[in-house]
Specification:
InterPro entries: PPIase_dom_sf (IPR046357), PPIase_FKBP_dom (IPR001179). By secondary structure, this protein is α+β, with helices and mostly antiparallel strands. It contains 3 helices and 9 strands, in the order H-H-E-E-E-E-E-H-E-E-E-E. It folds into 2 domains: 35 residues; 129 residues, Chitinase A, domain 3. Helix content is 30%, strand content 26%. Strands 1, 2, 3, 4, 5, 6 and 9 form a 7-stranded antiparallel sheet that branches.
């Protein structure tokens, strides 16, 4: 075989390999996009849960909370000016979780970014409405929070009763 034929064959192999790699990379991107699709209104709290949140808001004279299609109520207290997450974004946040009696059951700052879809549905539904640096108060019906699960600490003490409405104040600190 002549050198010219070998070079031509190598060039065709290289082009075919690059084409295959490009198609493969496109498939990977396509899979990620499919995997990250999220419908914030697909799961809705029951009417009884929504009515319970409404009753809490009325009893506490909270008149500016907005109802999301899922049944979460929210108040954006600081809009923020940075990046705005999508449901599949990784976020950093500082938060305080309260029971309906006002007592804190959890508070902290994420030690690392979490994918928003890995958090409770109430967060996943509402945090895309806030930009980095923003703050929101969430009034989450049980089915969009921890549902029928009891939350217990390391000593097996009850932290949060099953089917509890949750109230979170969340500061969005980063979006990736």
């Amino acid at each position: 075989m002549s050198i010219l034929k070998v070079q031509n064959t190598m060039l065709k192999t290289l082009i075919a390999s690059l084409l295959a790699l490009t198609v493969f990379a496109g498939c990977i991107k396509g899979r990620d996009e499919v995997r990250c699709q999220y419908d914030a209104c697909a799961v809705k709290a029951t009417n009884a849960e929504i009515d319970s949140v409404r009753a809490y808001l009325a009893a506490n004279n909270i008149t500016d909370a907005i109802q999301h299609c899922s049944g979460v109520f929210y108040r954006i207290t600081v809009a923020g000016t940075g990046a705005q997450p999508e449901p599949c974004s990784f976020i950093g946040a500082s938060y305080t979780g309260r029971r309906v009696d006002g007592s804190v059951f959890d508070a902290g700052t994420f030690p690392q970014p979490y994918q928003l879809t890995a958090l409770i549905r109430g967060w996943t539904n509402i945090l895309p409405l806030v930009k980095t640096g923003g703050e929101v108060i969430l009034y989450i019906p049980p089915s969009l929070g921890y549902g029928g699960r009891e939350i217990r600490d390391a000593n097996n003490n009850l932290v949060l009763a099953a089917n509890s409405m949750l109230i979170f104040t969340v500061q969005l600190t980063s979006v990736q």
